[in-house]
Amino acid sequence: MSKNTKKSSRLASHLAAKTLSNPLASPIEKSLAGSVLSQTGTGNQTGEELQAIASKALRDPKSDKVTKTLAGSVVSQSTKDR
């Protein structure tokens, strides 16, 4: 399996931190935010299950800008084989 060396950007990490502290954020947004933060400054990669959730969120026309931004970061940090 190929290793993806991308890491979360400062902007994505900041947005993720704000999302996790937002009581109005959805459970999906919080899951995506947690993944983004876990990939900040580390070699962690997106798991298959979370990648599927992020991909679905990107395709959902009801997803808001925050969700799509977090989902895009998560998908970009998945393994190259998926």
UniProtKB/TrEMBL annotation:
Biased composition (Basic and acidic residues): 57-67
Region (Disordered), start-end ranges: 1-26, 56-82
Name this protein carries in UniProt: Uncharacterized protein
